[in-house]
Amino acid sequence: MKPVSGQSRHLYALAPRLGANTKTVQEVSLASTTRKKLTFWLLEGCQRGHAYGGLKLLQLRDNGCGIRREDLPILAERFTTSKLAKFDDLSSLETYGFRGEALASISFVAHLSVTTKTKTDSCAWKACYANGALAPAKAGQTPDPKPCAGTDGTIITVENLFHNVPVRLAALRNPSDEYARLLDVMTKYAVHKPSVSFTCRKTGAGQPDMHTPGGTSTGTKDNIHRLYGASVSAALIQIASGEDGEEEVVDGGEKMDWRYDAWCSNASYAAKSLKFILFINGRLVDSLPLRRAIESVYAPILAKGSHPFVYLSLHLSPHCLDVNVHPTKREVRFLFEDEVIARFTAVLSSKLAEHAQSRPFTFNTGTQRKSQTKQAKDDDSMDVDEDVDDSGESDPGEAAASAPAPAQSQAPRVYSQHKVRTSNKDRSLDSMLVSASTSSSSSAPAVTSVPIPEAPSSLLSILNLRQAVKDAAHNKLKEIMKDHTFVGLVDAQHALSLVQHGTKLYLLNHAIISEELFYQLGLRQFGAYPRVALNPPPSLRKLVRIGLDAELKRRPVAGTHRVEDLEDKIVKLLTARRALLDAHFSLRISEEGEVRTLPLLCPGYVPNVTKLPLFMMRLGPQVDWTNEQQCFETFLRELATFYSLAPPPLVTKTKDKVNGEPKDVAWQVQHLLLARCRTDVFDPPASLLDSAVVEVANLPALYRVFERC
């Protein structure tokens, strides 16, 4: 039944009688699914296996020989397997699964998809399954396997396990326990097959929880050291059968060839529980009689409550092994079980006796502690970590053995994908763009953000508006705006800028953010605004007329309204409320109808006066003059729109002189808007996450993408 090296096995649909003669109780869980797939990986000669996910998503990937395109239609059918073709094959099984029910069972309780490619295929094939048969990936598509990009091997993806069986889903342990069982299975197979690279990572994790490099240079003891720690590997004893690799058990004239390879801890190692890893013919199983016999050997030489570490790999003749005695195939039975256990425990006892003459104890002298401290400092200065394996994770056991005294604590290591890289010496985005202006945002002087005190107010409407701003504040967004690094201006016409916060990159609409900022600044200084004098003062009527003409040209209004009538109505409305505008908003309109002063919301920044006609015109129809709170809120919103950095006034870089300093769009965004957002006066609402702040890059997520490539 073994395939030719590098070729894929054929799948066989078992006859109904043959399928009925095997036990049909099928266990579906993360650990059992992973265990079956791992055994198949090793049988097919895979050199790399990767497990990724949890209850919502489990993905198993290998680089084996793949599945043939013509076998995909029957892949998830019940009793479809590559291990059995006839009933007699049950006597020579070498794999964990053999009934062909694993994928079939999963397809009934989860969304199953398979992507596979053989060495002879020009492309990979992806197939989706439901209820044991091919299913379309999307509504309206055919269920046939679809060609796609991929590498040699197979990727099995299981999504939403037990989504249609809520009672079974509720019976599962919590996700952490289920993932721990899956990780335990992967760890044991990594010990058993050190030449194969294994990786296991939880969904959303930046680093794998388990990784082994594989290769012919990696041995079993190396992986035990890497996965279980230096304290375990330092106490190991190797026990193997003779040079011929076989022993015979004779009972009534019958013979059975068998061999073993084991790594067992000596008398100097003790743990709180027994760690027993048993493989029989390459299958991860358990044997209660063998477990009890091993514990009885260690009982006289270990303290009460202490237990050993034992890894044992047995190879028996397939015809002497019964793999079908347990519904989940966790346990097996084999011929001459008592004789095999007796022979192995006898060898184990003699080996332990040889190594029990003395027990080593590790201690540090003062000189050793000083040398270790000096070595640790040298390692930090060179930025080299000797205890990191190929996965990028440090070995906890070896780190504990080589760490200095507790008083000499070291800072935890920060991996590359979690490092925040910001420096004022780095090139900005603007420095990479060709600008006609001789002044750039990097060369412009910085503006100190003068604290703006909150003006006292006894008006209930203002107090309600201020409280509403605080209630709507988003803490995470406030943290981003308060602690960020400006990257550069992306698009002045569409008011887009880039900032960095931690390991994430965000795209901001600085026009919307500036409008919210100036609204809050106006609300904060209500009734106590500094004034900006207009010299010469423009005519209110002319400003309104210019604003009306521009608005009607941009958005014509159907009807018989004359522009002159609308102009008179707005001018009369604002003139009648001159006292209110002057007292509350520092907007002074003279008796002659001239606009003499405007409110100053932010020191060092004067709004673009080209938007003044539109602002004065909109005060008539857009402000609710009938309700006090609505009047104050709508007026401040219009004032914020006037002050905002929204185009068209600032679509290109210009050199307008404000207080004698050159300013352009990027400079205003960085040194005026975002500098003011760093202060405590700005409480960004959650609505900005939908309209003005978008996460465009995440460094840990990019590292995960690079790992898949």
From TrEMBL:
Short name of one Pfam family: Mlh1_C
Listed Polar residues bias regions: 359-374
Region (Disordered), start-end ranges: 359-449
GO MF entry, a single one: ATP hydrolysis activity
Domain (DNA mismatch repair protein S5): residue spans on this chain: 224-353
Cited PROSITE patterns: DNA_MISMATCH_REPAIR_1 (PS00058)
Matching CDD domains: HATPase_MutL-MLH-PMS-like
Keywords from the UniProt entry: DNA damage, DNA repair, Nucleus
Compartment(s): Nucleus
Entry similarity comment: Belongs to the DNA mismatch repair MutL/HexB family.
Designated name of the protein: DNA mismatch repair protein S5 domain-containing protein
Source organism of this protein record: Exidia glandulosa HHB12029
UniProt lineage: Eukaryota, Fungi, Dikarya, Basidiomycota, Agaricomycotina
